[in-house]
Amino acid sequence: MLIGEACHRKIAPRHQDTLLSSASVISILIVSFNTAPELVACLESLARCAAALPHEIIVVDNGSSDGSVEAVQQRFPAVQQRFPAVQVIANQENLGFSKANNQALPLARGEYVLFLNPDSEMQPGTLERMLAELAGFPERAAVGPRVRKQHEFISPNCARRLPTLWTELSNLLWLDRIFPRSRIMAWKYYAPWAGTTDRDVECLLGAAELGRLRYLSGATVLHHYSVSARKLPYGLTKRLGLQATYQYFIKHRGQAYARAYVAAVAFVGIVAYPLGFVRLLGGSLRKARRRWDEARVFVAWAWQSKAVTYTLPRL
Predict the structure, then answer these.
(1) What distances in angstroms separate CA 11 from CA 2, 81, 127, 132, one per listed residue?
(2) Is 197 exposed, middle or buried (CB count within 10 Å of its CB: 0-12, 13-18, 19+)?
(3) Is the link from the previous residue into 84 a cis peptide, with omega within 30 of 0?
(4) Do 111 and 37 contact (CB within 8 A), yes or no?
(5) Among the listed residues 167, 202, 168, 215, the one whose alpha carbon sits nearest the alpha carbon of residue 187
């Protein structure tokens, strides 16, 4: 996701002398956690695709134990002529994705800021297309590319609506995946729209309620999803997602709406138990276990206090 100058300054204002001395058109912020190979591949894709643009790269490492910081420092001299600057901030603990991005944002000197996952690879022409869209339409707060996995056209989460009880219930019950073209079941993803055209959206991957947001079909980023998340204890990522949605509803919809969401999660968790047996009768123990594990996470989260603090491990 790429945000413009006005939105950047609103989020993280800086002194005027820093603005005047800025030599970068775009600041690229990357938060890494145990993704050394993917991080190096991400930086090399930027060396190929961002060489023509004045830019800076700020990498915040969240206490990785796989040598991510060392990998960047060792790889950087080999591509020094192509990278104008790579600044590495090494945290001693895992602060989480959002907090680490907020740590890097005040350091950004560019007119535009790009938030990029370390397991992403920039594609040719993507940065130029996003910059042109923001420069040509100042009223846009941010633009987002068509994020995709290796063998798909679009990952639906890169352009979606803001959460409601119905969008989240459909998602928890997998209705939006079973009926991806249904206007009702896949309302969250603007169905039957399939991501083939540009459009204004309510939520980009990593951005919501910043102002006017624009999805760009012709700008693409390859994303190797959940490389860091797969290394976390099972269910932690799901619980964090449930908690984030609950906090969103508390803030924007009120206590009653948020409690209804908790009830919906509990309902889905209870329903998931018999669905696991259906999977088992269908001959798939792996899918049955997945449903049961998911059910335990949903019911446990719905039952526990919502004032809980989650501690991210250092693996």
Answers:
(1) 13, 32, 21, 22
(2) exposed
(3) no
(4) no
(5) 167
CB atoms within 10 A of CB 286: 8
Q: How confident is the model at residue 237 (pLDDT cuts 50, 70, 90)?
A: confident
Q: What is the mean pLDDT of residues 159-172?
A: 95
Query: Per DSSP, what are the bridge partners of residue 57?
Result: 28, 86
Of 83 and 42, which is predicted with more confidence?
A: 42
Count of CB atoms situated within 10 Å of the CB of 61: 27
Mean pLDDT of all residues in the chain? 83
In the block, which residue shows the tokens 């609506």? Answer: 161
Q: What is the pLDDT of residues 243-261, one digit of tens each?
A: 999 999 999 999 999 999 9
Domain edges within the chain: 2-154+195-223, 232-303
Helix (H) or strand (E) holding 204: strand 199-204
279-299 mean pLDDT: 81
Residue in 167, 291, 224, 180 with CA at minimum distance from that of residue 40:
224
Residues forming beta bridges with residue 221, ordered by sequence position: 122, 147
User: Rounded to whole angstroms, what are the CA distances from 288 to 25, 138, 201, 267, 279?
Assistant: 50, 50, 35, 18, 5
Say how far apart CA 121 and CA 107 lie, in whole Å: 23
pLDDT score for 34: 84
* Cβ neighbours of residue 215 closer than 8 Å, sequence gap 6 or more: 143, 144, 146, 158, 159, 195, 198, 199, 200, 201, 204
Q: In this structure, is the dihedral angle defined by the CA atoms of residues 39, 204, 137 and 221, taken in order, positive or negative?
A: positive
Residue 254: both structure tokens together:
């009120």
Q: Does domain 2-154+195-223 have CATH number 3.90.550.10?
A: yes
272: number of CA atoms within 13 Å, CB side? Answer: 23
